[in-house]
Amino acid sequence: MAITDQRADLHAHTTASDGMLAPGALVRLAAQAGLAAVAVTDHDTTAGVDEALAEGARLGVEVVPGIEISAYADDQAIHVLGYCMDLGDADWQRRIEGLRGGRQRRNEQIVARLNALGIALTMEQVRRIAGKAGTAEETLGRPHIAAALVACGAAASVTDAFERYLGSGCAAYVAIPRLSPHEAVGWIREAGGAAVIAHPGLYRRDDLVERLLRGGAAGLEVSHPDHDGEDERRYRALAERCGAIATAGSDFHGEREGGAYHGALGSRSVPVEVLRRIARACGDAT
Ligand code: AMP
Ligand code: ZN
Ligand code: FE
Ligand code: FE
């Protein structure tokens, strides 16, 4: 295969957060899909990276160590992808651990709100459901709470659980004080990595996205399953205007209730040359 045909999917989740496949299984699927590289970008954790790297070495798939940090701007979640951080960096580890502590407290508050609404759900039930899927306890999220709501009969489906209880603005929605996207970009750069703003089409905050690109983020996720053709054109132009790297990722989470949430692995990808540009943008923190 010519080098230009080698593709990288730069956004995928595993059971280290709310994906359905273990890290090794994700890499095996990447190999089957013909990908040359896949980035493991779990929510607020890099716990899946080592297993993925080992499987990647075995199968000849390049695994890019990554993360997807949930940051907030004015109570709106802004996701920041980080690539190739020094995972052994003590400050980095402390910071990410702090994020997970906040996530756990938020989950408890969500369950308390559900209880106040008359739904008898416990964190223990959520943990059990997540545990069955092989998820690490420390990175439980709303999808696991949604699955528990389905299991106890309080919701018809995960989508229904988000629409009625867990989605932004719903009765059991809890926004916790968190780091800003600017801080997330800073953390990633200070750990020697490169930051990419995830799925900008989901925020409709192009002003903020532009400031992030001019303020240290190396790239913009231009191609994402939740973007339509118009979004993609607009964000490609924005990336170009800011001198940012245009990236692509499927945001693969595995199959849920019969469908891929968000995209199938490899359904969005960049040539591996883009990965080299990201590598060159790493570790340039000032
Ligand atoms: P959290 O990080 O715990 O707040 O959970 C956010 C995650 O929930 C997102 O990254 C998605 O993976 C998932 N999610 C958000 N909205 C929905 C939805 N309507 N249906 C299923 N999963 C969703
Ligand atoms: Zn997710
Ligand atoms: Fe995201
Ligand atoms: Fe994601």
UniProtKB/TrEMBL annotation:
InterPro entries: PHP_dom, PHP_domain, Pol/His_phosphatase_N, Pol/histidinol_Pase-like. Coiled coil: none annotated. Residues 8-73 form the Polymerase/histidinol phosphatase N-terminal domain. SMART domains: POLIIIAc. Pfam families: PHP. One of its GO terms (molecular function) is 5'-3' DNA exonuclease activity. This is PHP domain-containing protein. It comes from Paenibacillus sabuli. The lineage of its organism: Bacteria, Bacillati, Bacillota, Bacilli, Bacillales.
